[in-house]
Specification:
Radius of gyration: 13 Å
Largest sheet: 3 strands, antiparallel
CATH topology: Jelly Rolls
């Protein structure tokens, strides 16, 4: 198991915060939906920890907007991956 730590904010739109849900994909396969917290200003960030299984060697981690979710804007500052 590996932990993925995201430094992010869900969104900031017209002065109010909205949480955003995006799909978390590992190596092209959807693992889960992730809801990121919104903030009331562009300079407030949150950490979100997700546990995923990664293969030995190279992996691709992607966050994708998906139809029907409140997913139109996330700010992703940093992704940190480490072994649990």
């Amino acid at each position: 198991m590996n932990l993925v730590i995201l430094k992010s904010q869900g969104g900031f739109s017209l002065g109010w915060a909205d949480n955003r849900t995006v799909g978390l994909y590992v190596n092209g396969v959807k693992v889960k939906d992730v809801t990121l917290l919104g903030s009331v200003t562009w300079d407030i960030w949150f950490e979100d920890i997700q546990t995923v299984s990664l293969n030995a060697g190279n992996n691709t981690i992607a966050f994708k907007a998906e139809l029907g979710n409140n997913d139109d804007a996330i700010n992703l500052d940093q992704i940190t991956v480490f072994q649990k």
